[in-house]
Specification:
The chain is an alpha/beta fold. The protein folds into 2 domains: 138 residues, Rossmann fold; 232 residues, no CATH class. The strands form 4 sheets. It has a 7-stranded mixed β-sheet, with helices on both faces. It has a 5-stranded parallel β-sheet with strand order 2-3-4-1-5, sandwiched between helices. The radius of gyration is 23 Å and the shape is globular.
Length: 442
Amino acid sequence: MPRRAYLPAFKTLVQSGGARRAVLLMGPRRVGKTILVAHAIHALMAEGVAGRDILYVSLETPSLIGLSLDALVRRFEKMFDRPTDTRLYVFFDEIQYLKNWEVHLKSLVDSYRYCQFVATGSAAAALKHKSAESGAGRFTDFVLPPLTFFEFLRFVDKENTLIREEEAEGGARRYVAQDIHALNESFVDYLNYGGYPEALFYEGIRKNPRRYIKSDIIDKVLLRDLPSLYGISDVQELNALFNTLAYNTAQELSLEDLSQSSGVSKPTLAKYLEYLEAAFLIKRLRRVDNNARQFKKAMTFKVYLTNPTMRAALFSSLTATDPAIGHLVETAVFSQWLHNDAHIDSLRYARWKKGEVDLVSLDLRQQPRFAVEVKWSDRPFDDAKEIRGIIEFAKTNKLARMPLVTTYSRGGVKLMNGVEVEFAPTSLHCYTVGRNTLDRSR
């Protein structure tokens, strides 16, 4: 398998984690966490780390159930005669299947000062919560998202033919589409099957993503992972909710409406949403008003799939002109931010009586930094009425950078109703966000 673009940053973190600190690798199923660990191990050995100094354990292995993490490490050390105080790299895969894993891992970090511990897990939000709660000062989180569009182009070997890098003002870099229509064709492929690395290399998966993604990824999470981790009894109810959310990705929802349409109580729905977010299947976005103020009692919210490919697999692949593709395009734009720790938790959407904005980022003072309106059309480039929401928002709030509107193929900066607005093709914007996020994380 090709290397994920996140491998150098992950390997550096593993090697520089230092004593008494574990690395927690999180992300949804089948995005390549285990492969990333294998590639990191390969890179360590290529640099001279001996195989006897690396322990990899899959905690899904039935024969290991019931054994403590400490017992596994001690058993490994008895098997090999290792020089005293030689660093030992220990990788625990799918650690969420061990009850009270955070307590055990913290104890190991404190006891084995010459060991570098790395743990992976698919229930990202749950792991992150326990990491912050029990592993304060002991765990460092690393989130591996689904394939970004920039990685997708590298995997299919089209980056160099479709993207050109130029130097912008002040020495910064900017990316230009060599052929925007060809780039858009690849972007539609990315929406339909490009979120999962394996789908790129097996024609059978691309031809029938429903069988692979729904059966091997979504169903395993809904029918096995979540029930076992959270004791969910009515998996059909949970499955029905997820299908509703997937179909309506990037749209505004409320617990009241969901409860009325499903017949499930609001407290139960709230728990289900928490579970689905914990499994990294969805991400909720909170609402602000036209002054970027948050509501004390949030009645509505947006739900995004963390990977646009899931919707195509559950229902059907989409063409560039399909009426439903707009929401999938917005989902793809949002998903490019999933690894960006500096911004992902700052993102909101704005809606008020006379307008809305798809994405708004708030700074530490809860003031808006930037605003993005996602369009899969070139009409906004010539018609300010198409984007009056983001124009009004920019007039009301002092943004740190000019508002951005994504389009189908047009780009540039235009004065729209007294506001300078930046336009960029959606596919190129997704590439740029993914590329810049990765470059800053290195």
